[in-house]
Specification:
mainly beta; twelve-stranded antiparallel β-barrel; two-stranded antiparallel ribbon; about 60% strand
């Protein structure tokens, strides 16, 4: 859960051989965290990821997230779809351009469906990637936002991966004034262990400042355990 599943598949596919590829994976998470928000209220969730990568650089995919425990008001947490184009810039990083559409539902009050779209652009290197996402109507609030994220990963061995994520969302048309805080940040740090066709990861995630409801923070730092199986 280091990040939205939105860009995880493209980053993996950039390193794949130059042939059309279809990919799929299923995952189990102890908590589904989206940009610092727990959409599952600290409950386990399941995910299904589908991805396609064309040798010309185009890619597309989707992630479906569902709660493990049945809730009478909630049959799923959300779906994220994306499509884009990635191309190498000489011997340096690759440029990554695309669009995404998200349809999300959270356990927390008020439980309502939120649909929004983003366009994004970024650079992807061997160990670091940077993206900027723009939405004209983030979470259907009428707010124009920029979300920037920096992701990094290193592999001490073929089986182990250490990863980190830093994100910041900025409302572009928020009211300004003394003491006002526009940005909200989310961060994660974790380690993953790969096995044939599978991976297990453990990550610490946090966001600041935490959104508040009735005077109480809605989110807090958490440790998230994830299991994934790749087809």
């Amino acid at each position: 859960m280091r990040r939205s599943a939105l860009l995880a598949a493209p980053l993996l596919l950039l390193a794949a051989p130059a042939q059309a590829q279809f990919g799929a994976s299923v995952g189990l998470q102890s908590d589904y965290v989206y940009r610092g928000h727990s959409l599952s209220e600290r409950r386990p969730s399941l995910s299904l990821n589908l991805a396609y990568d064309h040798p010309g650089g185009a890619y597309a995919g989707a992630t479906l997230i569902a709660p493990v425990a049945h809730d009478e008001d909630l049959s799923r947490l959300g779906i994220v779809g994306y499509a884009g184009y990635a191309a190498a810039l000489g011997s340096g990083p690759s440029i990554d351009l695309g669009v995404s559409a998200s349809d999300l539902i959270g356990y927390r009050y008020p439980k309502h469906r939120v649909s929004y779209q983003e366009v994004y652009a970024g650079l992807v290197g061997d160990h670091l990637s940077f993206h900027v996402h723009y939405s004209p109507d983030y979470f259907q609030t009428g707010a124009k936002t920029l979300y920037t994220d920096l992701d990094g990963a290193i592999r001490p061995t073929d089986a182990w991966r250490i990863f980190a994520h830093l994100g910041a969302i900025t409302p572009l048309d928020a009211p300004r004034g003394p003491g006002s805080r526009k940005e909200r940040y989310d961060v994660s740090l974790g380690v993953a262990r790969a096995a044939p066709h599978s991976e297990v990861s453990l990550a610490w995630v946090n966001a600041a400042p935490a959104p508040r409801a009735e005077g109480k923070p809605q989110d807090r730092a958490a440790v998230v355990l994830s299991l994934a199986y790749f087809f």
